[in-house]
Write a structure and sequence with these properties.
- By secondary structure, the chain is of the alpha/beta class.
- The protein has an 8-stranded mixed sheet with strand order 2-1-3-4-5-13-12-11, with helices on both faces.
- Helix 2 packs across helix 10, helix 14 packs across helix 25 and helix 27 packs across helix 28.
């Protein structure tokens, strides 16, 4: 590349002929007139220092100056360009001093951090504005306002740019990633990224590449680690080669993502990588479709064409540094123009070695004006802080696509962060379009009814997806028809769902298959858990479920003709029979002791000499039986004690009859089962029945991590049980329950449990659900297809297809619905026999009432004995013995009114005969009086019937 020449070119007229002197004078006169009419522009020199590889940046600088000069009327920028090596700081210092001696009013560049520091130091000393366009890290000791006083940097501030990268990683939800860098200053650019992870997060891997052009060993190490997120902080000329080698070692697959931090990634040729399946994201500082950049590129190409030099560049491939030089010249010219309007800006030739060092008086004012000035250029808004750093800027987030090299998908700025420019509909359409004619590898495991091996018919050969059948196969087939992709079912080698081993720090089963990129999807009865969600992504649940208990069906008792006795236990029936007899005997005894229950059998004959007691043992039994049967009785006791006994018995009979009838209907309409357990709490409280789950499954994990005390006890019991209560599969757990003789219960997910109880009638579900969760389709983290597949699942759910699939595979296929007629759970018994613990209180009340009645009856008896003793003029003791002897003689039902106590106790006392006779008459009169009410009523009733009575 040759620098531009500013010398004039002399020559003769065509044909070498001499020009007429008059003509020359005329031309001179015209020139003088023109000079007088158009005032000459003041020349303002501006210096620039470039390295040998900054050809495009130099073009941008020169033609930006040329465009400024085309529009300015009062001054003209004169570019003075110097060339230095990026590592030669001594020569750089000489060149900047040469520019200062030529009176430059600003120095642009260079792009090397090492040489730029030398230039900035000289410019600070001479107070010449220093404008740079490269990334510059903050010094270790922090920024010094004095050192930064004359420097303006149009490149995005290091701290703000690092924050932009961190925001992008957070927005992408990268939990772990690997950084590949080549220089130490590049690693400094990512300091915010290194700080976004906390101590408990997954460690970030940082790998440095050297000058060796073979990156394959490094990429293979990253691949073996399972990392799929990579940040490339390397020189632009290395980016394409590294990605090309990554493609060779299968590191540009579908679920691997790259972020390129260089702002010049869009200038590279990614043609051979456009059709890779990885997501490649980069950042860009300019809008390549803007009018400003198209206009600038046009100036560059036309200007080079005038100089007979070929230069071609498209707006999409303009380097960031070139665009920044264009904007730097523009904002500097604006500062000169607006300050020159108030005070004429004049250049000064300055010397670096002069002892009497002079500084340019306008330099500091120009820099301060640029710091407060807001401009808009090719690279967007240009705003500086007090240190001359560009702290506000816009970045375009671009993504490598098949249609075009890079496509804008979002923007970033310090105020709003990441803001996507494409709608969700566009994203969804793009994903669905990419699914067309794509073949997914779908991993699964054998387990009915989700996936089973299809039974071969005679002479039939099965291959591919035709080898399988089940709910999972038809689910993924329905999704494939909606989205238009193909699929190939594969079985996971170890047959496991996927659990994390904290010792080896590795996953197994389906999760490992996805992490190893051996499958695109995993579908079966795979539960969505928090732990699995940290390793893989899930679609929305296609089925909800919970943990329940599989147990043997309770033993059915033989049918009994005497089932009507079932509402009450045998103990209660025995107690009732005892109470029945006891109350009847008590009623009989008390009625014989109570004088009120001895009545005149013929009320119309008031002189009847006998009274009788109707309460013999048969009547007492009949009264109590009628009460308990709810029918009552025509005869009732009259004494207080006997009435109390009868009342307590009626109360007892009412309660027992109500309890019996309440349970009778249930017991007559159900088959009684010998249920041992009814809930998880029952299992936790006992030790006879063992219980377990599938080892490594989500059910086992649920009990292992639960904070609920009942489940903690259950986990401790399962973990300590010997032999082990854990099984390798649900089928093994089912067989263990069947063969366990009701001494083993299996904890499993309700969907699989429902499938088994539909086909094995000797099995049943105990209790309800212990938790709530869902099955989902798993895929690698950040899979672009998750939204589309979730949408397909939702569509199938809304159309009722998921319900149809479950009905088909649970209740119709392979013997489903066989056990619909039996009770599904031992807990379905709606009634249980009442034991003595339930109705014992009624017996207590009855016993207390009977005791009170006995006491009252005994007191009545003693009162009657006292009256007899007084009337018969005998001792109370003799009266007690006589009355008690009569009461105990149960064969006697009538009692003479004429008392014989005196005759039996004093046979020699005949003188008292007449007195006794008269006394007996009075007793008769008294006893008849006691039944006066009843006798009167009887007489009135007989009188109404027209029956006449004679007198004796």
């Amino acid at each position: 590349m040759q620098p531009w020449s500013h010398g004039s070119r002399r020559g003769r007229s065509p044909g070498g002929r001499c020009v007429d002197r008059g003509t020359v004078l005329l031309h001179l006169l015209l020139v003088l007139l023109t000079v007088d009419l158009v005032p000459a522009k003041r020349e303002i020199p501006v210096g620039a220092i470039f390295h040998g590889d900054n050809y495009e940046a130099e073009i941008a600088f020169r033609y930006a100056v040329e465009r400024v000069n085309m529009h300015e009327k009062h001054f003209e920028l004169v570019p003075l360009v110097k060339y230095v090596s990026p590592e030669d700081s001594f020569k750089t210092e000489r060149k900047v001093c040469e520019l200062a001696s030529e009176g430059v009013t600003a120095v642009f560049g260079p792009s090397s951090i090492l040489t730029s520091g030398i230039v900035g130091s000289v410019c600070k000393t001479l107070e010449i504005p220093h404008i740079v366009t490269h990334w510059d890290p903050e010094p270790l000791g922090g920024l010094d306002p004095a050192l930064q006083a004359m420097t303006i940097n149009l490149y995005p501030d290091a701290d703000v740019f690092s924050r932009a990268l961190a925001d992008l990683i957070v927005d992408y939800s990268w939990k772990s990633f690997t950084i590949i860098y080549d220089t130490d200053e590049g690693l400094m650019r990512l300091k915010d990224i290194l700080q976004i992870h906390g101590p408990g997060d997954t460690p970030i891997t940082v790998r440095q590449i050297d000058d060796d052009p073979d990156y394959r060993p490094l990429l293979k190490d990253i691949q073996s680690s399972g990392e799929s997120h990579i940040i490339l902080e390397i020189r632009p000329d290395r980016i394409v080669e590294l990605l090309r080698q990554a493609k060779e070692v299968k590191m540009l697959e579908e679920y691997q993502s790259y972020i390129i931090t260089s702002l010049d990634a869009h200038t590279m040729d990614f043609e051979e990588l456009r059709y890779s399946r990885s997501n490649i994201t980069a950042l860009r500082l300019m809008d390549t479709k803007s009018f400003d950049i198209k206009n600038a590129v046009h100036d560059w190409e036309q200007g080079e064409a005038r100089m007979k030099r070929l230069f071609r560049v498209s707006p999409e491939h303009v380097q960031t540094e070139s665009a920044l030089y264009n904007d730097a010249v523009k904002i500097y010219a604006t500062a000169i123009r607006e300050l020159d309007a108030t005070e004429e800006i004049t250049p000064s030739r300055l010397s670096c070695g002069n002892k009497n060092l002079r500084q340019w008086p306008f330099g500091l004012r120009i820099v301060n004006y640029m710091k407060v000035k807001t401009e808009h250029g090719i690279t967007g808004p240009i705003i500086f802080d007090d240190y001359g750093r560009r702290t506000h800027f816009h970045l375009e987030i671009i993504e490598l696509s098949k249609d075009e090299a890079f496509k804008k998908i979002a923007t970033w700025d310090p105020t709003h962060g990441v803001n996507y420019t494409r709608s969700q509909g566009e994203v969804y359409s793009q994903i669905v379009e990419s699914l067309q004619n794509k073949t997914f590898v779908v991993a699964s495991r054998i387990g009915a009814p989700f996936l089973m091996m299809k039974e071969k018919k005679d002479g039939e050969f099965l291959e591919g997806n035709n080898r399988f059948e089940g709910y999972s196969l038809e689910l993924i087939d329905g999704i494939s028809k909606i989205l238009g992709f193909q699929y190939r079912m594969e079985l996971v080698p170890d047959g496991k769902y996927g659990s994390y081993n904290k010792l080896t720090k590795k996953w197994d089963g389906l999760v490992k298959h996805l992490l190893d990129r051996k499958a695109d999807l995993a579908v079966c009865d795979l539960t969505i858990t928090y732990e699995r969600r940290t390793a893989v992504d899930f679609t929305m649940p296609f089925m909800t479920l919970g943990i329940s208990i599989l147990y043997a069906t309770p033993i059915q008792q033989p049918k009994d003709l005497f089932s009507f006795l079932s509402p009450l236990s045998l103990d209660v029936w025995i107690y009732m029979a005892t109470a029945y007899l006891g109350v009847s005997v008590l009623l009989f005894v008390l009625s014989r002791m109570a004088p009120a229950d001895w009545e005149n059998p013929h009320p119309c004959k008031q002189d009847n000499d006998e009274v009788e007691n109707i309460w013999d043992m048969l009547n007492a039994l009949w009264l109590t039986m009628g009460s308990i049967m709810g029918q009552g009785c025509d005869i009732l006791p009259k004494a207080v004690s006997t009435r109390l006994v009868a009342g307590m018995w009626w109360f007892f009979a009412l309660i027992m009859l109500s309890s019996y009838t309440a349970n009778l209907a249930a017991f007559l309409t159900m088959e009684r089962m010998d249920a041992t357990i009814e809930s998880a709490e029952d299992l936790a409280k006992q030790s006879k029945i063992k219980y377990g789950a599938v080892v490594g499954g989500s059910t086992m994990s649920f009990f292992q991590t639960s904070n609920f005390s009942t489940y903690q006890r259950m986990w401790a019991a399962m973990e300590s049980a010997r032999p082990s209560v854990f099984t390798k599969s649900n089928d093994e757990g089912r067989d263990r329950v069947i063969k366990g003789k009701r001494l083993y219960a299996f904890l499993m997910e309700s969907t699989s449990l429902e499938y088994m109880t539909e086909r094995y009638c000797e099995l049943t579900q105990i209790g309800g659900l212990l938790d709530s969760k869902g099955y989902g389709i798993a895929m690698p983290v950040n899979s672009p297809y998750r939204t589309a597949i979730s949408g397909a699942v939702l569509k199938m759910q809304e159309e009722g297809k998921l319900h149809q699939l479950k009905t088909r595979w649970w209740k119709e296929m392979h013997g489903g619905g066989r056990c619909d007629g039996k009770a599904s759970s031992a807990g379905s018994d709606s009634a249980a026999e009442l034991g003595i613990d339930n109705v014992g209180g009624v017996f207590v009340v009855l016993a207390f009432g009977c005791a009170c009645a006995f006491i009252i009856g005994f007191l009545e008896f003693l009162w009657n004995v006292r009256k007899v003793a007084v009337e018969e003029k005998i001792t109370p003791w003799d009266a007690l013995k006589a009355e008690l002897k009569f009461a105990l003689n149960i064969s006697v039902t009538s009692k003479p009114v004429h008392n014989t106590l005196s005759e039996s106790t004093a046979s020699g006392k005949s003188s008292l005969g007449s007195k006794s006779e008269s006394r007996r008459e009075s007793v008769v009169t008294g006893r008849i009086g006691n039944s006066k009410g009843r006798t009167g009523a009887s007489l009135m009733a007989l009188d109404k019937l027209g029956i006449g009575f004679g007198k004796n």
